[in-house]
């Protein structure tokens, strides 16, 4: 179950944001794409997720486990995303947030999955809490679990540790990469912080729309 | 998809509005109409009265607004301004005018409270020949509108935060709070208030329903002269009315253009005032508290008078309370106009919100300036122009005197307000919530229904309540397009106010005031977030 980009390029009018880029992310692997702000790295993630702003024009193909994703709406791609902010839906409880993307099934089974996810996040009993009553680190863990219980076939991380406190950041990195690795899904992360790169992970650097392998 | 999303708004709102305005062009070329208009003996004094009431009410409302904002900026009472503004905004102009009239007339509650004596005082208030009562009522009624606009600029968003920080910086440079407000807050505030001020001025100079109740009669304001001409059975008189509408509109544009020109010239000298250095000018705390209390008292008393009168067919002077209560007037209120007004306004408000939502969801933000610009035009033009044109448009289409025509005529101002109110919250919504929802396998529709709409619940309900309040208060388009076949609450209230039945007039004024209040309360209640 690999995530493949083939000759992906993105333009904004006359401006070439991403020059043709090909990349394969293996199951369980996390590839890090580094670049400054405005380098188009978040735009690339939006393109992969199928959520590109219509202002941009993109070319090239994305496939997951050999199946092309081009033209599919975001919800049909089964690609999980984490953003800089946790983006827990503020009008839903923690449990409701977890249930939001979980595949349909027997209610008891789904609730059991919520409990299991909360236990994994070291937040047992937090299901009925409104998101704003949780600390930043707790919310970040719920956001990851919310993405994972939706059973994604790949993950996209958009500077997910950027807004966390320095002491939380290291613990959160370990938490995220362990869980993604355990699910054997490919993961593409964009960041500008070298410390975010998981140990032994592959790093690509984006500069002026071109990628330099490092 | 994108084209289709824009179609309903363009078809049901923009097209009737623009086509109606286009219908004014033939009227502009009707030389007989112009001859009649210019020969009208009341034209020039009536025009002077219209411009005067518009200008005086606008300047007074602005002075009161600035006193309140300057006096209470960054004070503990700041947030109570929000309640004052909201309460005042909810009362329809016509209902307030009727209550205000009953309050200040010689035998009104005010005279009973402050003068007393055996007989009512000999003062001239309601329908005074100079239009002062009308101007005062307009100023007090527009105060909540300008306050809301000012509070929006000074209380919310990044700009408000930057202004507060700028005030702190000014304080560290030796400016007193009053000096900081004058030099740091006032310039951007006035700049942002310019469109609300234009709307207030045009409204005051062209208002019909309030002028019929409180305004002078010999001569009346030009708006009233026009109104009688537009409602005349003689089509030549209708043509003259439209010519006068164009004349009044041109006079307003000329005056506003002149003011803009003068202000541009005065810009340099005014700006030098900003840099003369720190002063120890004090914020007008006491004055602001006084103005706030006064405005609130008038708003409340105007409504109290209506309640008393609606229950008392007989109220001899100088008793503070009538001898006996009687619900007879209220029995007559639950008639056809009430139900028509309620259903029409509910339909217009819901439709306007749906049309606006479809527009915002399917159109690029860069296109908003067209519809927002059109909405501002709709609100800044005299209503007799847009509604008068629409009458000319609907007549050959067979829409006058029909519910469909009445609905479209109400939708015109309602959708304009809803678009303006919803644009901010909708466009500043953090789209990543929707992206997060869709990454969790939610379809476009589900992300909209389960994520975006619940998070925008409060502004959506507020917009609907505003639309409802705007709709139920419509007098000019209702009277013109109904063509005598239907009667709505404001039409009924204006007719009653001209007659002698005070109890019934008061009851209808309250029937007009209560539904918007209920709508705003319901919106506030239902719009509360799930958690605090």
TrEMBL record, chain A:
Q: What is this protein called?
A: ABC transporter ATP-binding protein
Gene Ontology MF terms: ATP binding; ATP hydrolysis activity
Q: Which UniProt keywords apply?
A: ATP-binding, Nucleotide-binding, Transport
Where does the source fall among the domains of life?
Bacteria
Does the keyword Nucleus belong to this entry? no
Q: Which InterPro entries match?
A: AAA+_ATPase (IPR003593), ABC_SmlMolc_Importer (IPR050093), ABC_transporter-like_ATP-bd (IPR003439), P-loop_NTPase (IPR027417)
Could you tell me which species this protein originates from? Aestuariivirga litoralis
Q: Does the keyword Ion transport apply?
A: no
Pinpoint the ABC transporter domain residues.
3-214
For this protein, the record's Gene3D superfamilies field holds:
P-loop containing nucleotide triphosphate hydrolases
UniProtKB/TrEMBL annotation, chain B:
InterPro entries under this entry? MetI-like, MetI-like_sf
The protein's topology relative to the membrane is:
Multi-pass membrane protein
Question: Origin organism of this chain?
Answer: Aestuariivirga litoralis
Domain of life assignment = Bacteria
Q: Which residues form a coiled coil?
A: none
Would you tell me the Gene Ontology cellular component terms? plasma membrane
Predominant cellular place of this UniProt entry's protein: membrane
State which residue ranges cross the membrane. Answer: 43-72, 84-110, 130-154, 193-214, 240-263, 287-312, 338-358, 370-391, 403-423, 460-483, 503-526
Identify this protein by name.
Answer: ABC transporter permease
């Amino acid at each position: 179950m690999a995530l493949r980009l083939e000759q992906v390029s993105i333009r904004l009018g006359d401006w070439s944001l991403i020059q043709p880029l090909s990349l394969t992310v293996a199951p369980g692997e996390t590839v890090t794409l580094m670049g400054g702000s405005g380098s188009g790295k978040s735009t690339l993630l939006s393109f992969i997720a199928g959520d590109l702003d219509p202002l941009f024009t993109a070319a090239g193909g994305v496939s997951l486990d050999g199946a092309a994703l081009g033209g599919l709406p975001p919800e049909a791609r089964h690609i999980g995303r984490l953003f800089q902010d946790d983006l827990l839906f503020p009008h839903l409880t923690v449990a409701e947030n977890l249930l939001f993307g979980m595949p349909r099934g027997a209610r008891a089974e789904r609730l059991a999955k919520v409990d299991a996810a909360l236990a994994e996040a070291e937040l047992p009993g937090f299901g009925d809490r409104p998101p704003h009553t949780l600390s930043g680190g707790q919310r970040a863990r719920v956001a990851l679990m919310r993405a994972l219980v939706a059973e994604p076939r790949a993950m996209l991380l958009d500077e997910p540790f950027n807004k966390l406190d320095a002491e939380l950041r290291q613990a959160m990195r370990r938490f995220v990469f362990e869980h993604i690795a355990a699910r054997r899904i490919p993961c593409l992360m964009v960041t500008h912080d070298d410390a975010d790169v998981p140990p032994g992970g592959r790093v690509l650097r984006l500069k002026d729309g071109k990628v330099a392998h490092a | 998809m994108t084209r289709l999303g824009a179609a309903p708004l363009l078809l049901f709102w923009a097209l009737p509005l623009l086509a109606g305005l286009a219908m004014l062009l033939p009227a502009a070329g009707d030389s007989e109409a112009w001859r009649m208009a210019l020969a009208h003996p009341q034209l020039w004094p009536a025009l002077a009265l219209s411009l005067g009431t518009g200008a005086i009410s606008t300047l007074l409302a602005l002075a009161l607004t600035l006193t309140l904002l300057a006096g209470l900026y960054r004070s503990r009472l700041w947030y109570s301004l929000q309640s004052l503004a909201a309460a005042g905004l909810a009362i329809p102009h016509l209902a307030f005018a009727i209550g205000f009239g009953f309050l200040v007339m010689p035998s009104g509650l005010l005279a009973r409270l402050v003068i007393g004596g055996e007989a009512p005082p000999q003062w001239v208030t309601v329908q005074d020949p100079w239009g002062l009562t009308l101007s005062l009522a307009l100023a007090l009624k527009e105060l909540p509108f300008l306050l809301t606009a000012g509070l929006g600029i000074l209380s919310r968003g990044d700009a408000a935060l930057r202004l507060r920080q700028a005030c702190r910086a000014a304080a560290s440079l030796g400016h007193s709070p009053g000096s900081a407000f004058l030099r740091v807050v006032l310039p951007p505030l006035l700049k942002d208030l310019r469109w609300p001020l234009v709307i207030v001025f045009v409204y005051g100079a062209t208002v019909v329903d309030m002028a019929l109740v409180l305004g002078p009669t010999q001569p009346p304001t030009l708006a009233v002269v026009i109104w009688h001409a537009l409602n005349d059975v003689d089509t030549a008189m209708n043509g003259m009315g439209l010519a006068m509408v164009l004349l009044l509109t041109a006079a307003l544009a000329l005056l506003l253009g002149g003011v803009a020109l003068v202000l541009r010239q005065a810009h340099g000298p005014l700006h030098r005032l900003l840099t003369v250095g720190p002063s120890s000018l004090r914020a007008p705390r006491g004055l602001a508290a006084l103005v706030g209390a006064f405005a609130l008292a008038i708003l409340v008393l105007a409504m109290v008078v209506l309640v008393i009168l609606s229950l008392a067919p007989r109220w001899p002077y100088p008793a503070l309370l009538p001898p006996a209560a009687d619900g007879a007037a209220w029995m007559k209120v639950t008639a056809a106009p009430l139900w028509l007004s309620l259903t029409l306004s509910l339909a217009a408000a819901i439709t306007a919100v749906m049309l606006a939502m479809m527009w915002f969801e399917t159109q690029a933000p860069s296109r908003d300036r067209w519809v927002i610009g059109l909405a501002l035009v709709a609100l800044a033009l005299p209503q007799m122009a847009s509604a008068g044109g629409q009458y000319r448009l609907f007549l050959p289409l067979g829409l006058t005197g029909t519910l469909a025509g009445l609905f479209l005529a109400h939708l015109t101002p309602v959708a304009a307000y809803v678009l303006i109110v919803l644009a901010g919250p909708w466009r500043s919504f953090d789209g990543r919530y929707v992206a997060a929802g869709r990454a969790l396998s939610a379809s476009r529709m589900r992300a909209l229904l389960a994520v975006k709409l619940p998070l925008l619940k409060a502004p959506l309900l507020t917009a609907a309540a505003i639309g409802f309040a705007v709709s139920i208060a419509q007098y000019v388009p209702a009277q013109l397009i109904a063509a005598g076949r239907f009667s709505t609450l404001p039409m009924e209230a204006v007719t009653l106010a001209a007659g002698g039945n005070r109890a019934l007039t008061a009851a209808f004024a309250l029937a007009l005031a209560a539904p918007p209040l209920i709508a705003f309360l319901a919106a506030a209640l239902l719009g509360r977030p799930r958690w605090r």
